[in-house]
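Table S4 entry, Galactosylgalactosylxylosylprotein 3-beta-glucuronosyltransferase.
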Amino acid sequence: MSEVRIRPRQVLVLIIVFLVILMMVHRNGKRTCQGPDYLQTMYAQADTLPTIYAVTPTYTRPAQKAELTRLSHLFMLLPHLHWIIVEDANATSPLVTGLLERAGLEKRSTQLNIKTPPEFKLQGKDPNWIKPRGVEQRNLALTWLRNNVDTDRHSIVFFMDDDNSYSTELFAEMSKIERGRVGVWPVGLVGGLMVERPYLSEDQKQVIGFNAAWRPERPFPIDMAAFAISMDLFIRNPQALFSYEVQRGYQESEILRHLTTREKLQPLANACRDVLVWHTRTEKTKLTAEEALLKQGKRSDGGMEV
């Protein structure tokens, strides 16, 4: 049997081909996706899409880690999101820090904190309305954005509560928001309805009304999850902030009145026919057995983070 000899030059060629293939696999692995078309498009265009800054106020409670974990999976899937988590606390917590680290989101997140002042009833307003959560936290996030975002690059701000349910497709729609505009879409399971939605003009390009059943007289009778805002509007309107001095349900109108009008809203989500976000709420955690343990000086989660 004759001996097969491999020349050094052939070895070199084989090594080069192997390295080229390895580089291609590595590069494609970073930018490809086997999901639906809209998600594949987002990965292919990740470097040119506007950054979406999702602002999430949060506070300590039994379901906090579970709800933030659910949201973190969205950020792991979507390449152009930056998560701003603002804790209602005097200091940032190891729980949130650890969650971001385990999800690999340290470089695509910002962890802030500010404590909500003691609750009070708004004088001259609805006497049964207690000071709403999230005002201090969202305003701190807006301050951070105004001081840190590159104003030369198009970006979008979305107020993303931690107990809602979001489709990844919503963020593909959000990426279509034009500079100087506010994008809007339907929200499911809110305001006593199966869906709250904008009504559009015949050409489907302009918002002409809303189907809200709860306080439809509001300037913008929509949920916080129903819109996202081009960042340049916040730069041009530094007075745009959330406020305690408004009635219940008017926080959305309070921020939007500084930035846009109904006529300038940009309809998205298949001309506001697709529901891509739901106003879900986690059932209050029942811990009666845990309370019985505590009376005995015991805990089921001793030494564990739940």
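The radius of gyration is 24 Å.
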